[in-house]
Write a structure and sequence with these properties.
Helix content: 40-55%
Distance between the termini: 54 Å
Protein name: precorrin-2 dehydrogenase
Shape: elongated
Radius of gyration: 26 Å
Pfam families: CysG_dimeriser, NAD_binding_7, Sirohm_synth_M, TP_methylase
Largest sheet: 5 strands, parallel
CATH superfamily of the largest domain: Tetrapyrrole methylase, N-terminal domain
Number of helices: 14
Number of domains: 4
Keywords: NAD, Oxidoreductase, Porphyrin biosynthesis
Order of helices and strands: EHEHEEHEEEHHHHHHEHEHEHEHEH
CATH topology of the largest domain: Cobalt-precorrin-4 Transmethylase, domain 1
Strand order of the largest sheet: 3-2-1-4-5
Strand content: 15-25%
CATH class of the largest domain: Alpha Beta
EC number: 1.3.1.76
Catalytic activity: precorrin-2 + NAD(+) = sirohydrochlorin + NADH + 2 H(+)
């Protein structure tokens, strides 16, 4: 049966947790992070849970379980190893129209806890409906590696200026185009570099322009390794997919270049490193995202490491993506 995806606001709301072991500890920790008021019933307690009770972070309900406790809760989480007791609690929750999660028992549960990717305030949740939780966790691990770590900070900028964005861009289509320009522009790159103040300034500058905003100048210096596209870093692939201009060294392998943005302008990189650097500056200064591709660990070895350092001191953002792989393979490939 398909589940209805739902993100619950539990801040200040009471949640009943039954169980005091390692699993209950993980559930309570996640609930506290969401701001819930946790009431816990358990005869034996994990030491960390006992410490949280002593510190007043959670309340302990003592004695035999009282079904009336469910009436005060918005949700109930059951984390005991007593199957019969779990079934009784699930039935009592159902009779009171309260959602209950019985850990590792999808049949008894009326809600599932998904695997979560946290880029606060942005959250992604993955659920298998309780059928294959390890598969959901594996997908979470893959997405954790692929998703830009700056997404949370970018979402925070959108959230803080939401009212101004809607006032400045009332037409939905126009607003969508503006969002695309910000997401594909220099703001995420500035956030990745830790230049939060510059990112905020660039964000507001784009908001000040009520017309369609260009993507903005920036540079990405990509080492393509031995020419195996499977060894490109995820950050390098993102840069190649967003390029306006590709400045390509003659030795870059064709399978690597095939992964780059198809409609980007492609230029053969001059043989002189300083001339290449000048070409990068020209494109970025004109508001384009230029990606310079070199084989091997192209921008962390002399003389290109010094050029990369100089480019990173420019006003527009410049990122260096290392080549990954065996240096011996780079030499065999002519890098």
């Amino acid at each position: 049966m398909p589940l209805y995806p739902l993100f619950a606001d539990l801040a200040g709301r009471e949640v009943l947790v039954v169980g005091g072991g390692e699993v209950a500890l993980r559930k309570v920790e996640a609930l506290l992070q969401a701001g819930a008021r946790v009431r816990l019933h358990a005869h034996e307690l994990h030491p960390v849970l006992a410490g949280w009770i002593d510190a007043g972070r959670i309340d302990r309900l003592r004695g035999d379980f009282d079904p009336a406790w469910i009436d005060a809760a918005w949700l109930m989480v059951v984390a005991t190893d007593d199957g019969a007791f779990n079934a009784t609690l699930a039935a009592q929750a159902g009779a009171r129209r309260r959602f209950a999660n019985v850990v590792d028992d999808a049949a008894l549960s009326t809600f599932q806890v998904p695997a979560v990717i946290d880029r606060a305030p942005l959250q992604l949740a993955i659920s298998s409906g309780g059928a294959a939780p390890m598969l959901a966790r594996r997908l979470r691990e893959r997405l954790e590696a692929e998703l830009d770590p700056a997404l949370g900070a970018l979402a925070g900028l959108f959230a803080r200026h939401r009212t101004a964005i809607r006032a400045r861009l009332p037409e939905l289509g126009h607003r969508r185009r503006w969002f695309d320009a910000v997401i594909d522009g220099p703001v995420p790159a500035l956030l990745r570099e830790g230049r939060d103040a510059d990112a905020a300034q660039a964000f507001l500058a784009m908001l000040d322009d009520a017309g369609m905003v260009p993507a903005g100048g920036r540079a990405s210096l990509v080492g393509t390794g031995p020419g195996d596209p499977g060894q490109l870093t995820l950050a390098a692939l993102r840069a190649m997919a967003l390029a306006d201009v590709l400045l390509v060294d003659a030795a870059v392998a064709a399978p690597v270049l095939a992964l780059a943005r198809k409609d980007a302008t492609r230029e053969l990189a001059p043989g002189d490193p300083d001339a290449c650097s000048g070409r990068v500056r020209d494109h970025a200064g004109a508001g384009r995202h230029v990606v310079w591709l070199r084989p091997g660990d192209g921008f962390r070895e002399a003389p290109f490491d010094a050029i990369a350092t100089a480019l990173r001191e420019a006003a527009w953002p410049c990122e260096v993506h290392a080549g990954v792989g065996d240096p011996a393979a780079w030499k065999r490939a002519g890098a």
